[in-house]
Amino acid sequence: HGQAERRTMLGLLLPLAAPAQVRHAAGFDHGLFSACEGGSYPKGLLIDLNKERSDGGATVNNLGGYKGGDAISCAPISAETFTPGECGSCGCGCPDCGPPSSDPKEMVLGRVVHVFDGSGLSPSQELDLVITNMTTYMPWTSAANRMLGTFGEISVAANTETKFRFSFRDPDTGEEVAVEAGYEFCYMDFDTGPQPNNLNEEMRLCGFDNYFSHGKLPTYSTTKDYLCENIPTADYIRFTEESNGCLTAVALKEGKGSDNPKTWGDILMNLDSSGDGDGRFTTEILLGSSGLTCADYDKCPASGRSGYERKLIADDIIECTPGTTHPQAGVYPNGQGPSGVVGEDPLRYTLPKFFCAQYPGGTSGFEVTYKVGPSDSGMFGRNFVFGGTGAPSSCELACESAGSPEKVIFVIIHGAIGNEFWNTWYEGAYNALPPNTAAKLVYLRTGYSIPATANYLDRACSEADGVIISVPYADEESRRSIADRINSCLEQKPDLPYLLTNTDTAYDMTEYFSSGSRLSATFDGYIGSANYDMGTTCTILAVTKSMDSAMSGILPTADAVDSSMKIAVYWSENEQDNAGIEQRKDGIYQAVQQIGGMDQVEVRTTVSEIRSLSGHYVIALGTGAASELQQAGVSVDLQCGDDVDRGQLSFYGQSTYTQGLQAAGQMYAYLIRPTDGFGEEGSPSANLLPGAPQQTVGVVGVDSGEYEVVSPPYEPAFQQPSCPLKLAVITHAPTTDDIPPSPRKDADTFWEIWYVGSEDSKQDFDMTWYALGSDAASIASEMAKECDRADAIVITVPFEEGSSDYVTVDNAIKACQDKRPYLPIVTTNTDTYHNPKVISYVGSDNFHIGKMCSYAAFSADPQVFLGITEPTPSADLIESTYIIAYVPAVDSQNPSVLRRFEGIVERLSELGFPEGTAVKATSVEMVKSFKRASNKDNVKIMSLTFGGLADLACETGVTCDTKADFSCGDNLGSTDYYGQHVWSQGAGAVMQALTAARAKWIGAVGNADSVQKPVGVQAPAAKRAPFYDPFSYSQDKGDYGLRYKCTAGTFPVGISFEFDVATEFINNLGGIPGGPTVECTVEAEEGIYPPGGPDADCPCGCGCVCSDTSSTLPKELRYKAAGKYYDGKSHEPVEFDLVLTNLTHYKPFNSKSNGRGLADVDGLYEHSFADVSMAAGTDTTFLLTAVFEGGDINEPSNRVPMDGVEAELCAFDIDVGEYGGQPVMRETFAACGITDWFTNGKPPNDEHGGVLTVYPAVCDNVDYAEWMRVETTALTLDGDELSCIQATAIKTGTSSDNPSKIEDVLLTDCSVYDECAKDGVSGGPGHGRTGNLLDDAITCADYPDQSDVPASGEYPKGTGGSVPDHLKGMPYRYTIPRFVCFTFTSRTQSDKGFVFKLGVGPEAAGRTGGRNVLMSGAGVPTCTKAPPPPPPP
Asked: Among residues 182, 373, 390, 862, which is most buried (max CB within 10 A)?
């Protein structure tokens, strides 16, 4: 290879994101900001009564003229001293508490109402909550008018009734204030006295929108996740809804003071038992929380006894079997209940006795009438307990983006739809682009299809400004096909950048690119992992169980490992085309060979083969492989691949989120950099060769106490608003460098070029850059200063761990983390600093750089540097090689540089070179001396720094003996090199910091120690970023993706739904039990009548005679939580149910099929469609309704708002049966009130309107008209004539050609539909087809162009892949043309839902039968900036 090739190929950047423990804010926080992404802020109302104040917690405590609060002293009163009707200055139970107060006759809770305007985390206004009595008020004792824990309470005497007004008042002006936002207010401890009809509580409230409680969950509320459907509030409170919209609540169960709640933790479930965590919340809502779940409410305690004797109250004690489920037997654990009695307080004494009301905005208060019934003695009273849970209702972007150039980035990757790795990768890529950007990210998945890849490359050539591509293929044909498309494009657009990602094996494609083109050396850059090296690291981790050893990269000796250990590697059939994973496998195999002393690695490609092994340590190559084994019940010891399954398994691998982030972010930075950029030295990405890969480490179950487990993902920064957002970059760059370089093109030092990379990537952030040299005190000082002002920080720590300078900077960073735990901090450049709470480390693994540099002494083969080929130096080379590694005196104590030298020495030793082959020189004179003293033939001088190259350089035109042969460290200068790409390191560090400041961090976090004290951690599956979807997507209509993600400052409005995400059902369509649990006493095949003949009673259809048809369930087929509704005010959706009901008579053939397909032996659903069985010779009109979870479809307030919403309902497998050569049971599907329809061969009227066109579009070359007749028709329903579109089946089909999922009818490359089968015959005998169906064969030899014959393509054969086994080798035409989608945008049928009619024609005479109608659908939320009004309650 020539020098130009070597220089381009040997470059390195390490964006290392290793995990660690982070602090986590509790989930229930009154909605306090946790739903707002970084850079956006809450807008709405929060009522927070939890304030520590004197005088019982009230600013003014004189309600009704009765002094109140803990300071009131009341003489004890008894029946003997009590005189009915004689009540004193503090109530009937406190007749004499001194002279009246001169304060206004009101109770004022000062500044507890917080108004947020969307500009920051601090409220824009604080209001008083003022309570006044509008009718006569008498307390039992006003000393009880106070704050009780986090709630307020008001004493009310027995047999009295008072109307109270709660109003919002400006504390400065004294004026009432109408608040714009809605809010919630709750009423607790609603019970009766100890005897029947004694001191009963009753309340009446009006002017609210909705109310909720345990057992009656709200449609929208931040409290919803902490309420339980299984808690029967109706047994404790009787609610009566009045016709005028008011509500009366009457207490039904006894209670006493010991079961009164004092905090939210006493009455809510599913709370995080760890508490508030960082103290940033104003409400200590988790005081008393014990981490109970809804299931605990019905769990029998360990004592087997729930409840205790309560004086004056009838005993309510449950005896049960410990640990079993018993209704209402749960107790508060460990004294966490209101009374504090350990293990005795039943949850039922407290939890069901509260409810909340949701009040609309635009008012200055609300009114409540509270009544206490009489007592037998005439004494006592009740305390009216209340609290606010109002939450800011939306998030608004504090800083509007300054805008950005319109750039189009195509991402062409080999992943398939639904792949979790590539979904996470996309999240990183999307979040890396600035909000409200004009840039477009076109995300295209090929599913290992070379034709699809070629097709997308052609489209990218005409439309893209930059291309990111994964090439996992090793075979020449695939590589050449891809390279040919790129070569062709470069002839038209020679400057179009191509960035390789994910799989490193394709980096060596030099021979396929056109000579003289910009890519004649290789791709412009690479972001991803070094797979061979990953395999080596996984092996060390497996055999040592030590992350320290694994991260060191040093192979253990044979005597240090268990010789009886047997390793089995699972390489999934679905990944056999992935050369990167193959390299991972080879790395494991070679490492085991080098270690020695163990059996050889067993490599297996099927689950059954792995299952058959015994006593093996199982390594799965990637999360997909691990998932396949786990689903089959096979244990996995180590997942070697990536961090997608954080927390599920021990793992080592690439950081998926940051890989996508770096690829898209650096490409974008490259595209928008100024024209006077730094010329040929620049690159849109890292040239990451096998060196230190973008890896994440994770360990479970190893013998070390150092491995902590992280539970949450990193949360976005929570800081006061700053416009623009502020980024601080604190470096040890020399103070003498010209930073910023002027002009930019003259940037020629390491840090000048690093600065340019950071400047190109800072987007709309205001960046402050520090060049402080190695002055630890200055670095620490600026860190402390920026901690108070910055929104994100990048910092270098160039000191040896344990040194005083290291400790100084470390203390400053940790102090900042304690002060602002959600401030994103990224470390960069030097890998000797370790902190588990920073976001990540972006830079090089210097030890590994050194190991790779050692190869330069005896090899120029790029495959050696890539890890594709194991280096095999000859004996002569081993004997004759001598390396002089030069480290300038100024860097002689730099621990990162010294690590490079250590890596060189280690790798030479592993390869058999004698000790002393590499020596370190710290001056030019030492270099000369070492060279003169050496008698070796192969002497190589390596500079370990860029500055060292200048020291060793010869004067122009002069030959000298100190010129460096190789640069080990970075890509600067003209010398061949291996190491970090400087521009990319600066760009990457800044990119990760600003992305973390603006969006949730989906992935592991931390800066793991690579040698001495690694923190190997993993976290449970992190919460997905908003709008995770199994389809590819992007924001703009012009893209090929789903219009499904909203940029910062905008919010989705509309619906998203899919039947296959539902996990629970009500399966009683038409009152007929359905689903896999139905037991058929007679299960008949088509054509066979049950006993009794055609007139027999067929309760579950004539294909399933069932014995039990009694059911109290609604007559509906309900898919629970199958959809999500977005209200345009937040990114968080509300789930809803899809409910199918029949409007006309319905008769199934076998209702066992109803739901989501037939069940297999394990009870797992067979396919992802909704399935409705229809008996032959019947038709039925159905209504599909979307209702909020659990709602009654007949209640208008339960229905999801659908007006203007765009969504599709699709029908699949529309065909005709066949008997005796004649068509039977012809299917029809008529959709009414629709706006459009589409299928393969007929795109939607709006070119990008169809949800299913995302992958990538319906295919125009598919002739649906041969298979379906689509025409207009009409349907009369309740006297109204509805306009409909009906699809009628034309051709016959069988169950063997049914699709199993949506992807089975979509093609990534439409041309394969007409690509003739390899054997020259498409269709015909086989495929489950009989009779006249055999006539459907296509013989390609009968056509002029035998390779391109209409409709002759077939589904791929072979093992693995995403094609269901029953479709492999099946002609596409049997399945793909037989689906149709209908677009609807508004509700019909009395505003209830979507109306459609299914029909199945008759069977042959004397026979019975039926068809299963398969349906699917999807919705496309749109984005809005101004939140619309909330939907009706």
From this structure: 390
